[in-house]
Structure formats: structure tokens, C-alpha cells
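task queued by scheduler; priority normal; single chain, no ligands, no partner chains; default sampling; output format set to C-alpha cells
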Amino acid sequence: MRSAPLFILKILQVFDIAQMWKVCAKYAIFFCMETRKLPIGIQTFSEIRNENYLYVDKTQLIYELVQSGCPTFLARPRRFGKSLLVSTMRAYFEGHKELFNGLAISKLEKNWEEHPVIHLDFSSAGSFKTNQDLKDALEWKLSAYEEKYNIKNKPALFSLRLGNIIKIANEQTGKKAAVLIDEYDKPILDALQTPDRDANHDTMRSFYGVLKSCDPYMCFLFLTGITKFAKVSIFSELNQLLDISMSEKYSTICGITEDEIKKVFAPEIEAFAKSENVNTEKMLAMLKQKYDGYHFCDTCPDIYNPFSLINALNERRLKSYWFQTATPAMLFGLIENAKYDLTDILDGVTLDADSFSDYRVGGGSLTPIIYHSGYLTIKDYDKESNLYTLKFPNEEVRSGFIKFLLPLYTNIPEDKLGLTVEHFRKAIATRDTETLMTLFSAAIADLPTRRSVNMEYAYQVAFHAMLRQTGFDVESEQQVIGGRVDVTLETRDTVYIFELKMDNGKAWAEVADTALAQIEKKGYAARYANSSKKIYKFALVFSTEKGGLAGYKMTE
């Protein structure tokens, strides 16, 4: 650490006023960084404010939302700031005016009233894989409030106990209660792949059912979650429930926008840029590619993943922070076991809002839960057709998701994945087509022993995933006039066009010839006719009987 005397000495050595200010600014940033605190893993509003951590002010949106008075639901991915949002609301309803000094809400709220708060946080209550786990947690949470309000006569049902607590809290304080439920769906999500799936779903459906009758005793009801489960009582019985998950007005209530980054974290961005030996504009572009790109409605500004961004600024390293800590095992278990077209994730999927808003337990598409979990986000919207295009939000999610997929569809060990991908990348960059095919053939050699159904699809997923890890521009199911191209890969000077086929008992060479003829007949390479790039056309044929790559043919 540089000492203050050295700082003064540097200034005294400078005789040019303009240069002096540059030196002052440089060292001021250094000393400022010594005292600024980033809230790594801190989700309690009072701790952030009392301990002087940096805070991105969302209180104007909170004030406007609370003033609406509507029961409200918000779906956002894990580690996206939902718990901090709920904690901030709790401090507001408990009347802790001093915690909001200097924030937007301090100029808006004139009457700081204290209300009883029933705060049920399921995100910090451990796992709910069994129904008994859930019942134990509900007993613990409800008992704490029953003790607080000296409730002796406890109804038998958890739902009635919750309703009784809300009513008595109102009666004892003379103020309506604020009911804040964080991660309402965690007990359902945790049990999705267990024998207690339906039991947990039914327990929570009954538990939340009482909230409708509690309206006379509540001033505000707010629930957060990962996704919106169909047939859960809060969504079917609370007729006035306001779902702000895709609201333009509240699209930035969680997460961090680029304007907020520049306003709140300017010294951290500059320090990170210096450590990377780039300017601040380049540093912002690097952060944007890695952690930006979330959109929760068609008009939403770009939103950064707050967990990854703050950790990156703290460590000054562009790592995959969110994917490593917020990936629910149950989601990938569902994907692995379901007949779900993973190319919809790899390439993007276009559908209407109803198709990705609600998730139905035990059936239906996985797209809603994949979207709400943060692995897909809105990238485009067509007003005429009312269709949304969902894709990976950023490089962190894209890379992490594909790294998860590859062990399921190849025999590449995780510790060898980086080296294997680099070999793929080098073969593509140098046009070493023979090595490229050898590497791929080895990677999928034992795939039939692990993926017993729809092998053509499994080979396609494996091939697509490996190519995407190389960092080159890859498109799957690209629409052209004559049809859809299975896979297209572009480098700076080369285009690779791939058609993938199963042999279905025929001679592989015959199938390959048919595939190459299809590429020509349907004009898959037509869009590159005026390009100076070298074009390779591949037909990959997989063995139905023996598995693996039966053979391939290539033309230029």
C-alpha cells in the first residue's frame, strides 16, 4: 500500500497544474477503493446500510410498488437480488427511516409508519426434498411468529395458523400486516424429482390458499420466486394478484443496469480496467459480454447479473460466478430425463408469452422453468405475431450451460474439456478437417451406452455443443430458401456447412452422398456465393446399429 507521504511527495514533484490534478485523481481513486465496500453475499438491507456497503438504489420503484397496494408476485432467477429486495421492503414497513437516508424513498415517503411484518424466507431454510422437511420448516417459521404474538391456541393446519398469525398481528398492533414471502416456490422446486413432489406441491398450494381470506388484515402482500407454478392457489384464487415479472415499469427492480454500473461502481470499473491494462470503455464491453443481456420484457433495458458483476469487480477476474453457485441440480435433472429439444436452448426458441410464463408440475414444456431460472432470456419481440425469441443472456450462461451438457453427450472428462475444445478450435481454424472429424468421432464413441433414445438427436446435441465451445460463430437449423441447414460454422476466412444423418441400415457412403446432394440442391451455401471465404460441405453419417460416426464425406 502506498503511504500518504509518498502521495504528497508525488504532488510536490509536479509543477504543471493539469498534471497535478491527474496525479491527485489517480491517488484519490486508490484511497477511495480502500474504503468502498462491495456487498458480496450480503442480502440484508440493514447490514448494507449500517456497515456502509455500496447499494444500488431501488427504493423509488419499491415505493411506487407499495403504494399500489396490490398483492404482487415477482419471478427472477436465483442470486438476482430478490432477497435483498424483500429485506429492503421489510425495513420500510418496520419504519426504519434512518436506514433510507439519502435514498430516493426518503424524499417520497412523508409518513413513516411501523407495520407488523410476516417475513417467510424459504431461500434460507435448507432443502425441501421430503414433505417432512417442508413440514418441519413450516412448523419452525410459524412457531416463531406465534411466540412473538403470544398465540397459544394453534389451529391444526399450517394454512390456518398463517392466517391466524396475520389476523392477530393486525389486532395486537392496530396496523395491517405486510406479508413478505421470499422464494415461495423453493419447497416445490426442491422436490420436483423426488417421491414427495406432489405432496410438497399440495402442501404449499393449501398453505398459500389462506392468503385470499387475509386481505382485510394485510396492507401489502409480496411474493418472489424462480417461476410461476400453474395450479398453485395464490395464482388462481388471488384475483387481484399483480404479476410484475414481465412488467416494463418494474423490469429493473432487481439486477443492475449499465447506467447504474457507471453511477455506482465507477472507481471499481476503473481499477479493474487498470488491472487488465485496458481503458474503461473496453472493460465495460468485457463485463457486458460476460454478465449482461437479461431482458424481462420486450422493452426492458439490458440488465446485468448482480451476483456475477459484483464478484467480478471484487476479485477483478471475469469468472463464471453465478453459474457455479445458482444452478439448481433439479433443473438439469429435468432436462436430462425429459424429451426436451436442447437445440431450443442452444439456438434460441420463438414462442408466445403464455408458453413460457407458467410451469406445470409433471407435464408440459420445460421452457418456462428454464427461462425463469435465468438460462434463457428475451432477446427479441415481434409485435405483429406477438412472439418472443428466447436465447442465452450472456457468455457466462452460454459457456456454463454447454459445459454442463457435454459430459452427458460425450465421453470427454471434465478435466480434459478445455484441452479438447482447444484442439477442436485449432483444427477448425487451420482447416484440418481430418483431425476435426477424428476428435468428434472419439468424443461420441460410447454415446449409445448413455443415451438410449433418439440417437440422431443426441448426436446433433453433442456436435452442436462442442462446436459452440470453440467460440466461433455457430448457427443451427439456419433457415434458407430450400430448407434448414443442420449446422453452419464461420471463422474469419472459412465456412463449414454440416448435414447430419443416421444410416438407418443403409451403406453410410450412400447416405453421405444423398446428404451432400441435399446441400447442393437446397442451396445451403447460396448465401456465401459472393463471399471470399473458403467453403467446406460435410455429410456426417452415424451408425444406427453400432453407434458412433460411421463415416463422413466432404466437398469444397
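post-processing summary
- DSSP finds 24 helices and 17 strands in the chain.
- The longest helix spans residues 17-35.
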